[in-house]
């Protein structure tokens, strides 16, 4: 699968020389990307019948679209999701934390069912999406960001 | 043995509710290791993904199952039948539990699995979670909780 180079940060390096500063563009790979690539590679190479019935490996176009969703919604520090195959070449991207859950079912390119829940015994909110994942980015941030330290009492 | 299910002109089984599958009959759903996910909210920190209750397509596809009665009437050990090193566990419901969630439960024999069935219907997230709540372990995966 082709991968796109991501430049997500600039590093400003000041040389020790007296008169000049140097700026360096550095390529920064999000923490989640390597893990996701590994998972996707495994899932597109699943054997037929992997589920004990007639399950197909994850379709390449679905894996590529999933990667695109993550590039559009995840921050550099977002923890890697779990990626679960479906029987029809589809896949689901999942985060489960103590704060809540996000599940993104990729049925095909531009065909996603997104679900988000903060309360464990709640049915949550489910929406059909094509290529606008702005809300999903907020859900992921809410479910995965670490809690800030509670300020000491006065 | 169940009577043959209805088929279309291509010979594919049409979604149906088989009248010879009784509400008390067991339906077994194999759980691949790929369906096990981490969730710190669950005892043991692991659970079954809702993808385990995902149909084979959004058209006429259903969720594949093994019909426990059919397996046992054939003289086979049901737990051995649905378990190999690849399919580490399985869950079960009764046909009545699945029908109560609005699904049709039918028979879909395959050359590779003559005791195969499916259940068909709509699978929004709430229904997938309801099915997982109704499920009981048939062959348990250690350390994986079914319910909160």
Could you explain the architecture of this structure?
The complex is a heterodimer of chains A (154) and B (148). By secondary structure, chain A is of the alpha+beta class. Chain A has helices spanning 31-44, 60-73, 134-144, and strands at 9-13, 22-26, 82-85, 91-96, 101-108, 111-117, 125-129. In chain A, the strands form 2 sheets. In chain A, strands 3-4-5-6-7 form a 5-stranded antiparallel beta sheet. Chain A has a two-stranded antiparallel sheet with strand order 1-2. Mean pLDDT of chain A is 81; it is low at 1-26 and 148-154. Chain B is globular, with a radius of gyration of 15 Å. Chain B has 148 residues and is α+β, with helices and mostly antiparallel strands. The longest helix of chain B has 10 residues, at 125-134. In chain B, strand 2 and strand 3 (46-48) form a beta hairpin. Chain B has 4 helices and 8 strands. In chain B, the strands form 2 sheets. Chain B has a 6-stranded antiparallel beta sheet with strand order 6-7-4-1-5-8. In chain B, strands 2-3 form a two-stranded antiparallel ribbon. Chains A and B meet through strand 3, strand 4 and strand 5 of A and helix 4 of B.
Compact summary:
Chain A is of the alpha+beta class.
Key phrases:
heterodimer; A: 154 residues; alpha+beta; five-stranded antiparallel beta sheet; two-stranded antiparallel ribbon; 7 strands; 26% strand; disordered N terminus; disordered C terminus; B: 148 residues; six-stranded antiparallel beta sheet; 8 strands; 24% strand
